[in-house]
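Could you help me review a protein record that somebody else here produced? What it holds is a sequence and that sequence's fold in token form. I need someone to confirm that the token line plausibly describes how this chain folds. Take the sequence as given and treat only the tokens as open to question. This is what I was given:
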Amino acid sequence: MSKPILLSTGIQMPLVGQGLEASYNVQWLNNAADRNRLLAEIGPKVTAVCTGAHTGVKTDAALLAQLPALKIIGNVGVGYDSIDVPTAVKRGIIVTNTPDVLNEEVADTAIALLLNTIREFPQSEVYLRAGRWAKEGDYPLTAGSLRDRKIGMIGFGRIGRAIGRRIEAFGIPISYFGRTKQTGISYPFYTDLVAMARDVDTLIAILPGGPATQHIVNAEVLKALGPRGVFINMARGSIVDEAALKAALRAKTIHAAGLDVFASEPNFDPDLLTIPSLVLLPHVGSASQLTRNAMGQLVVDNLAAFAAGKAPLTPVPETPFKGW
């Protein structure tokens, strides 16, 4: 019996590629000399897709229209805004992602980025490596400290709560913004992001991307955050108006920012590199071998379950499993 056909929209780590090939006839879109020709040939027979923001390919309505037999999409990552979920819902396509296995790693990175941004550790290392310590004296005292801050979380899902636990250990007060108040959470809750920004001095964003959150952090929010303000983005580049952020940093409307994500990855606005109060990371929130292996295995397990006629492990809320 021939294996079902799976389309991978881009390069996958070896663990994923080998795992998928055990259950599927894998077709690699990134290896195709003519992608349109490949899709014309195999599209009607593809029943599964493996994708992720890292592939640079959006699983949008146009791509889905070329895959009429598609039943399941396995997304590498917890965020799945590169997939046209409303179209998947209409067609009964299951979308899976990789929740939980990356929570602690991303939370660790968020705290590291927060500390690096406030205390200017990357800048001080550059100072040392340039030989300026011996020539010019100690690195200047940082205006920012974690000791006297109030943190506002933009989004408070699984990863947000993991970040919150770490912040609690520092003895720093936490508030959170979201659509609904969460049961069992005692932190102050806001449905007005500007109001929360006004009441805190540090914002950490960890919420999904997509149209609903496009530029949710804008000039008004940054102005409310104020001149001591620090903004940390561990979410998606789309959630912040980068032009407004650059303007706020240059005008010292806010003090500093740390970004792990950008509006157009892996490309990004080179003008960001000219702002000394910015700490920039190349989307490494979950990028350890341990965590990425766990994410990759979960993707494989979801798609292998479908190939075996079983229920996927982690369908997203919009596409609950109701049977094949």
In short: The chain has twelve helices and twelve strands. Residues 5-101+290-307 form a domain with the Rossmann fold fold (CATH 3.40.50.720). The radius of gyration is 22 Å. The longest strand covers residues 46-51.
